[in-house]
């Protein structure tokens, strides 16, 4: 059954962060309130000088921002672009969808953040060389990357050491 939820009826909760630039306000997941499984939808609010999150891109999710009030600056791989009320900003999967939103204005920046949800997503942070495994929120620094078959050279000797079971 279709649900109508007015953003004015949603309360925004303060989201603490170790750096004040990343503190902000967000609603509960509106999509979940409506019973949707494949999307996440939050109303987000940034005070002047705040950022949405570190610059990142998703490997297995698409994202969309809709600016409801205020003005901001969008960072993408091409640079910085001003955004404002009525702008719909779409981010595709992969490096070309990398983004970060900042409120460099005086008034609050309020926007909808809609993201597709799959069983697993990997978020990459190009500025800091990190990866984040979602939804577990396990974050690691890249650096010990390996080729797929690297370390598999001793397969025969490994198999010889395994117990042989009868059926």
Structure, explained:
This protein is mostly beta strands. The protein has a domain at 7-119: Jelly Rolls, CATH 2.60.120.10. It has two helices and 13 strands, in the order ββαβββββββββββα.
What key attributes describe this structure?
about 170 residues, mainly beta, Jelly Rolls, 4-stranded antiparallel sheet, 2 helices, about 5% helix, about 40% strand
For the termini, the CA-CA separation is: 52 Å
The SSE order reads: EEHEEEEEEEEEEEH
Mean pLDDT: 92
| Sheet with the most strands: spatial strand order | 1-2-3-10-5-8
User: Assembly state here?
Assistant: single chain
What is the element layout, followed by pairings?
Blueprint: E1 13-15, E2 24-26, H1 30-33, E3 39-46, E4 57-58, E5 63-69, E6 71-76, E7 79-84, E8 88-91, E9 100-102, E10 109-116, E11 121-125, E12 130-134, E13 138-141, H2 155-161
Antiparallel strand pairs: 1-2, 2-3, 3-10, 4-11, 5-8, 5-10, 6-7, 6-9, 11-12, 12-13
Provide a short characterization of the protein structure.
The chain is mainly beta. The chain has helices at about 30-35, 155-160, and strands at about 15, 25, 40-45, 55-60, 65-70, 70-75, 80-85, 90, 100, 110-115, 120-125, 130-135, 140.
């Amino acid at each position: 059954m279709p649900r109508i939820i007015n953003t004015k009826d949603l309360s925004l909760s303060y989201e603490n962060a170790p750096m004040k630039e990343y503190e902000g306000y967000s609603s509960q997941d509106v999509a979940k309130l409506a019973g949707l499984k494949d999307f996440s939808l939050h109303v987000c609010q940034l005070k002047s000088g705040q950022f949405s999150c570190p610059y990142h891109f998703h490997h297995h999710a698409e994202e969309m921002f809709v600016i409801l009030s205020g003005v901001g600056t969008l960072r993408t791989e091409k640079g910085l672009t001003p955004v404002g009320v009525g702008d719909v900003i779409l981010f595709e999967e992969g490096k070309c969808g990398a983004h970060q939103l900042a409120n460099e204005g005086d008034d609050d920046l309020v926007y909808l953040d809609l993201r597709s949800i799959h069983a697993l997503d990997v978020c990459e942070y190009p500025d800091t060389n990190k990866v984040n495994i979602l939804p577990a929120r396990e974050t690691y620094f890249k650096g010990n990357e390996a080729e797929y078959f690297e370390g598999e050279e001793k397969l025969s000797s490994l198999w010889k050491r395994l117990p042989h079971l009868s059926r």
